[in-house]
Amino acid sequence: MSKFSVEHTSHKSSNLWQRYQFFILLIAAVIFRQLPLVSIPFNWLESYFHEISHGIAALLTGGKVVSIQLFANGAGLCTTQGGSRFAISFFGYAGATLWGWGIYKLSTAHHRYAQGFLMVILALLLSSIIFWGRDILTWFILAMLMAVFLVTLKVKKTHYLQKLMQLFGLLILLNSLSSPINLLDGRHIGDGAALASATFMPEIFWVLTWFIIALLALYSLYKQQK
Amino acid sequence: MHISSTAAQAFRFEQLSKSTLNNQQNSVPKSTEFAVGSATDKKQQAAALKDNQVANDLAGQASKSLAINEQAVALFEQSKQSQSSQTQFSATSQDKPSAHNETAVASYQTIGNLAQRESVQQLLGVDLFA
Questions:
Q1: DSSP state, residue A133
Q2: Cβ <8 Å between B128 and A79
Q3: Strands across the sheet with B127-129, in order?
Q4: Which of the 8 DSSP states describes residue B40?
């Protein structure tokens, strides 16, 4: 094989990667979510961003976070006191979408900014351990998430750092896209039911709203890649 | 399997020793009657005493074999107890609810917890978001 043909092939593959990297990462995220053991820390990641969004909404609307609980199966619970119940309920799924979108978006920024954003997430995780974690399992899960972000922060090459952050962002976004659908189980519990009781709008309206927000976020990232 | 055969042996041993003891008991009164009936004759007294001694020895042997029997009975009872405990265990495993029933109980308890959660929320003034 001549030098020209090797260069031509590598150029072609890098072109393909650049053109379809959003879809390749999306498929990778879908596969990661299906893998039995590998998916566990990612479930915790998604769950954490959902619960911390409830917490931040409570803090921003004048309430306070009493505790955050995370469970091994990827479930979570945020206990708040005061604040706007509407905002707190709404920002569970909407906030997680924003986190996923933000992590992906900032990954393409300068290496320093990406690292700065990771530091913010690490600080948030540390404050969650200190102020809001109340049980060993939650502390353990939060510590594991901190370890994941610390490893990501240590990545020297900008390209790999970007791809890792993009993968995390897409995993969180995919969860925000699929999780609200689980609320439509006829049991009238969860954030959708809380919003339905507070606003007299049916639960399905809120589920669709969260679904559309997540879809728009995904579309925005796809457009940015183009 | 091993326990039941040991128990059967012990049972057989017990039967044997009982029959031996009966024979000995029958022989002892005979000698006593003989001794009381001829108390004046020295030779007869000596013979009676000898017979008594033999009877006592036999009684002692019988009581020894009875002591072994008690051990065997204790072993037998012990094995019976272990057998009954095994039966109880198997009965408990039979009583274990099926996976379907366990799910039903878990769902029922979840509903109970939700009600409990609401009461705690009202009591403490906190909101829970899952």
A1: B
A2: yes
A3: A64-70, A76-81, B127-129
A4: S
Name the more confident of A178 and A50: A50
Task: Give the distance from residue B124's alpha carbon to the nearest chain A alpha carbon, in angstroms.
Answer: 9
Give the per-residue pLDDT at B52. 66
Structure tokens at A23: 């879809």
- What is the DSSP secondary structure assignment for residue A50, as one 8-state letter? H
Contacts of B128 in chain A (CB under 8 A): 77-79
Q: Do A77 and B130 touch (CB under 8 A)?
A: yes
Q: Residues A178, A127: contact at Cβ < 8 Å?
A: no
**Residue type (1 letter), A29:** A
Of the residues A47, A56, A68, A79, the best mutation for testing chain B's interface (the one with the most B CB atoms within 10 Å of its CB) is A79
Q: Which of A85-89, A147-151, A196-200, B70-74 has the lowest mean pLDDT?
A: B70-74
Q: Which residues does chain B have within 8 Å of residue A195's beta carbon, measured at their own beta carbons?
A: none
Half-sphere exposure for A210 (CA within 13 Å, toward CB): 29
From CA A179, how far away is CA A210, in angstroms rounded? 9
Q: Token pair of B122, please?
A: 């009202």
User: B129 and A88 in contact by Cβ < 8 A?
Assistant: yes
Q: Count other C-beta atoms under 10 Å from residue A52's C-beta.
A: 25
Following DSSP, what letter does each residue of A58-109 receive, concatenated? HHHTT-EEEEEEE-TTS-EEEEEESS-HHHHHHHHHHHHHHHHHHHHHHHTS
Q: Looking at the partner chain, which of A80, A81, A190 has a beta carbon nearest the beta carbon of B130? A: A190
How many CB atoms neighbour CB A50 within 10 A? Answer: 29
For the stretch A165-223, pLDDT in tens is: 899 999 999 988 888 887 777 777 788 888 888 888 888 999 999 999 999 999 999 88
User: Please, which residues have CB within 8 angstroms of residue B4's CB and are 6 or more apart in sequence?
Assistant: B79
Q: Identify which of A106, A136, A125 has the alpha carbon closest to the alpha carbon of residue A51.
A: A125
Which two tokens mark A151?
């490893």
The strand pair at A64-70 and B127-129 is best described as: unpaired
